[in-house]
Amino acid sequence: MHFEKDKTYHIYNRSNNTVFFNERNYLFFLSKVKKQIAPIADILAWCLMPNHFHFLLIATDKSCQPVNESHRPNVQLLSKNIGAVLSSYTKAINKEKGQKGKLFSHNTKAKCLINLSSI
After folding, report:
1. Which domains does the chain have, with CATH numbers?
2. Confidence (pTM)
């Protein structure tokens, strides 16, 4: 995912199965978003459903900063942090459910929308 400063993005991912099993799961996921994404992007809206999520956000200077990762060149901080949220959430759910493998069955998408910050 590549982000540009001051652009608005619809970020989403889904699974063929349930990813949020109870209220604790929703709150745990949102706590991760609050720590990893809220400090570096302006979150306009979010929606968590049992098998998928949506975020509407505006990328900031901080969102777009490159992160030096040898195994993934040219990665931006927002992309890295979205991955960290999903990875750590998946690990927690797998541990809770006694399972292994992917929780989200698709790649996370980020669609650039009209620039809502200039309206």
Report:
1. 8-118 (3.30.70.1290)
2. 0.88
Strands 66-67 and 52-59, bridge-based pairing: unpaired
DSSP string over 55-83: EEEEE-TTTT-EE--TTSTTEEHHHHHHH
pLDDT tens, 74-108? 789 999 999 999 999 999 999 999 999 888 888 89
The three-class DSSP label of residue 92 is: helix
In order of 7, 22, 59, 63, 114, the CA distances from 83 in angstroms are 20, 22, 16, 13, 24
- Under 8 Å between Cβ of 45 and 95: no
Helical H runs in 1-119? 23-36, 77-97
Residues counted in the chain: 119
Hey, how many other C-beta atoms are within 10 angstroms of the C-beta on 118?
A: 8
Distance CA 6, CA 117 (A): 7
> 6: helix, coil or strand?
coil
